[in-house]
Amino acid sequence: MSSSKEVLNLLKDQDLVELERRLGYSFKDRDLLRRALIHRSFAFERKLNENYEVLEFLGDAVIGLIVSEELIKKFPDKREGELSQIRAFLVSEPSLAELAKSIDLGKYLYLGKGEKRSGGKEKSSILCDVFESLFGALYLDAGFKKSKELFKEKFLPLLWKILDKAITYKDFKSFLQEITQRDYKVIPTYQVVKVEGPDHDKEFTVECQVKELKTLGRGKTKKGAEQEAAKEMLRALGVIDDSRKS
Questions:
Q1: How many CA atoms lie within 13 A of 232 on its CB side?
Q2: Residues 6+ apart with CB under 8 A from 83
């Protein structure tokens, strides 16, 4: 078995320096950064005894704590349940994949041949994982304080934009699906339960269901009614409240 130190020629220093520049931090122990970029498929092919999975486990906890602290500051009046739901959305696979894309993290990944052919460098699941592993490496190299400072400066503004887009632009269905997939392992269902009015002025009533919980939404179109039903479901789950602008 080989260690990450034995793949120095495969993980070029110039690539790592470029990634450090994008990240805004130079590693004291660059082997940590190398390890954070090694997917298990690459490690298997090269018979390495290290990949990014342990760092991913650590980074998940680091990011979760940073986001939790910032949510308490941003939403001081929200309840624990509401904060938990919002955090679940912010640290979900699609959200963290977007943060990874903001520094083109996929470009620096080392994947096995099969994973590379299947477009692994663009897969949200892998981008999310390697973003977490990157912060696991950062934590070990620089500590929590520096990791938090870097996250707040480089990634937190984008994370708030992702949250604002989900709510401000009324994309309640997407927001709800991320929450329910993460926390309940189900996808919301929608059903038209009533259509009223003449053809030129119809009003649709749609029922949204998540497990045993049901909510209703009304609108001049089916899509509009679905969005309203999803918004009501988010309220019922405690993710958003009536005091928040929508």
A1: 19
A2: 68, 71, 72, 75
Nearest to 116 by CA among 51, 43, 42: 42
Under-50 pLDDT residues of the chain: 1-4, 8, 242-246
Strands 213-219 and 203-210: antiparallel
Which domains does the chain possess? Answer: 4-165 (1.10.1520.10), 186-236 (3.30.160.20)
What are residue 39's phi and psi, to 5 degrees?
Answer: -75, 155
**Nearest Cα residue to 219 out of 203, 234, 195:** 203
Bridge partners (DSSP) of residue 214 are: 209
Tell me the C-alpha distance between 176 and 210, whole Å. Answer: 10
Which residues carry out catalysis?
60, 132
**pTM of the prediction?**
0.71
182-213: buried (b, 16+ CB within 10 Å) or exposed (e) per residue?
bbeeeebebeeeeeeeeeeeeebbbbbebeee
For 118, which DSSP code? T
